[in-house]
Amino acid sequence: MKKSGKKLLGGLEYVGLLALIIAFWQIASNAGIINPLTLPSPATIVDTFLSLIKKGTLQQNLLISSRRVLSGYAIAAVSAVVLGVLMGLSKHFKKLTDLIVQILKPIPPISWIPLVILWFGIGEEGKIFLIFIGGFFTILVNVVDGIRRIDPKLVELSNAMVVPKLKYVFRVVIPYALPNIFTGLRVGLGQCWMCVVAAELVASSTGLGYMIMYARQFGQTDVVIVGMLMIGIIGKIMDSILMAVEKRVIRWK
Fold first, then answer.
1. Of the spans 21-30, 136-145, 163-172, which averages the highest pLDDT?
2. What is the DSSP string of 79-109?
3. 79: number of CA atoms within 13 Å, CB side?
4. Is 115 exposed, middle or buried (0-12, 13-18, 19+ CB in 10 A)?
5. Which of 90, 118, 170, 239 is most buried when burial is the number of CB atoms within 10 A of its CB?
6. Structure confidence at residue 226 (pLDDT)
7. Is it the case that residue 4 has pLDDT exceeding 90?
8. Residue 2's pLDDT band (boundaries 50, 70, 90)?
């Protein structure tokens, strides 16, 4: 009961703080302190949100962006975990690949846009590739770091018991590295959502990123804010789902 009571109190505190910020924002807007062209009032944003829902524009763009993010994220997660395990287990393989990874890792996803257009044209593949780039390196670094942290005693014990390689990977390496892997997956998911706007700059006419950039050109700040909030909210929901999965998979954490 005490634990549930603390959770309830914490939730009420968050809601109360959010309500206070929105109330102050609305009062400042009504008083003319805040320019409605640069920062519309909460009431205006709610009206815009409902209007976009009624037209179906928001749902359509949200579904398209979500599909792109999940596609790029899935490819990034699988490839980064596989490559990370290989790099973590084999010093020779890590030595071969580390220089390439260290050179490519700092390059912002938006810098890839000219090459993406040349390689993939203006289709969906280019957008998914940019989102993939956004999440791949973050996940990869965390996977490698998690494997490098494996207790040497476990490695020695596995060698002494002559544990088969695949069994060693799936029964020892991956379970031990799971906390780091999930950290990488969660941060990588956030990076993928951050890249969706850049990805939808590539000759796109759909998606939340396109909706935001199109509204910016016409000075529709309220639409821009609605699009930004939707990215944040959906990103948070997906992160919470990953966190719940993590708690079930790593109950000892």
1. 136-145
2. HHHHHHHHHHH-HHHHHHHHHHHHHHTTS-G
3. 14
4. exposed
5. 239
6. 96
7. no
8. low
| CA atoms 133, 139, 145, 150: torsion sign | negative
User: Are residues 195 and 133 in contact, defined by beta-carbon separation less than 8 angstroms?
Assistant: yes
SS3 55: helix
The predicted-structure confidence for 50-100, as pLDDT tens digits, reads as follows 999 999 999 999 999 999 999 999 999 999 999 999 898 888 888 888 889
Ramachandran assignment for 207, one of left (phi > 0), alpha (psi -120 to 50 degrees), beta (any other): left
Domain positions in the chain are 1-33, 40-249
Q: Of 162, 161, 176, give the one whose Cα is nearest residue 89.
A: 176
What CATH class does 40-249 carry?
mainly alpha
DSSP 161: T
CA distance linking residue 57 with residue 210, whole number of Å = 12
Residues 96, 97, 98, 104: is their CA dihedral positive or negative? positive
d(CA 166, CA 150): 16
**3-state SS of the chain: helix, strand, coil percent to 5?**
85, 0, 15
Query: Mean pLDDT of all residues in the chain?
Result: 87
